[in-house]
Amino acid sequence: MISELFRIGPLSVSPFGVMLVAALFVGNLQLRWGLRQVGVGTARAADDAAAILLAAALGGIVGGKAYYALLYGDWHLLYSRAGLVWYGGFLVGAAAVLFVIRRRRMPAWRTADAAAPALALGYGVGRIGCLLVGDDFGEPTDLPWGMTFPEGPIPTTADALQREFGVDLPAGVAPDTLVAVHPTQIYETLAALLIFWFGRTLLARGAQPGGVVLPVIGLLSVERFLVEFVRAKDDRFVGTLTLAQLIAAALLLLVALLWLRRRRAS
Questions:
Q1: Above pLDDT 90, what percent of the chain?
Q2: How far is CA 78 from the centre of its chain?
Q3: Per-residue pLDDT tens for 81-115?
Q4: Which of 255, 200, 215, 219 lies closest to 30 in space, CA to CA?
Q5: pTM for the full predicted model
Q6: Given the DSSP bridges, would you call strands 6-8 and 241-242 parallel, antiparallel or unpaired?
Q7: Do residues 156 and 137 touch, judged by C-beta distance below 8 A?
Q8: Which helix (H) or strand (E) holds 236?
Q9: What is the CA radius of gyration of the chain?
Q10: Of all helices (H) and strands (E), which one includes residue 162?
């Protein structure tokens, strides 16, 4: 795993940071294409895309950090480099984007449709950064594609997995033994890219307003709900369900209700 690519003075640049910038870059390109596709702000698509992307980025960082600090009850974590949690970032970022859409008097459903594939694409690219730094991996596995992460925020040693996540391992395993785990970062990247492709296809075919963003958010929620079953996590609140799964289920219910409401209104 790679913890640092290079330094600029006192600033350490990690692969995650680079992939985060890459996610914003490709997300911007896709968003500009999406806005033109739905005919929103055609003359100023670049400006609209930049405003939406800035709101999503700032809201995502603030929300992701706040979620992380609340989860562990330590506001000092706001100043750490770790802890950009997806759902915290998504919820606050979505609120910030909706504010920008309203302020710029853009049609909400059409703009959301244009943004949805960009969200899935950015998420998939961002997960590559998690893989490169050895973060957000899964539980131990015997599958042939299992991976070990000797470095990173939490290495996949027997001792670290037991201490941080309460993972049960066979008796007699040495504490410094590297354990193969599910590469859930790869699972999520592949799933997000498929969802991106599906959403882009719907957009290109001229789906009705809401006909892109609702399926994309729904599929992203299903993907996250399922992958959490094999994620190494320490926040399982309801039986084996994690907080992320509860949020994913709530989002999926909201998507279903909005879909039914729009079907009845059409």
A1: 47
A2: 19
A3: 566 676 777 888 889 999 998 888 899 999 999 99
A4: 200
A5: 0.89
A6: unpaired
A7: yes
A8: strand 236-238
A9: 19
A10: helix 158-165
- C-alpha to C-alpha distance for 37 and 42, rounded to whole angstroms: 9
Q: Which residues pair with 18 in a beta bridge?
A: none
Alpha-carbon distances, residue 30 vs 41, 191, 241 (angstroms): 15, 18, 33
**CA dihedral defined by 70, 242, 230, 75, rounded to 10 degrees?**
10
Reduce the DSSP state of residue 117 to 3 states and report it. helix
Q: Which two tokens stand for residue 220?
A: 């992203």
Q: What is the DSSP letter of 153?
A: S
For residues 125 and 225, what is the distance between their CA atoms, to the nearest angstrom? 19
- State the number of CA atoms in the 13 A half-sphere of 148 facing the CB: 10
CA-based max dimension of the chain: 66
Query: Residues for the chain: how many in total?
Result: 266
d(CA 145, CA 143): 6
C-alpha separations of 213 from 3, 242, 265 in Å: 35, 25, 17
Which tens digits make up the pLDDT trace of 179-215? 999 999 999 999 999 999 999 999 999 899 999 999 9
- Measured between its terminal Cα atoms, the distance across the chain in Å is 51
Pairwise CA distance, residues 40 & 108, whole Å:
10
**Cα 245–129–86 angle (5° rounding)?**
25
Residue 173: C-alpha distances to residues 58, 141, 170 (Å):
44, 15, 6
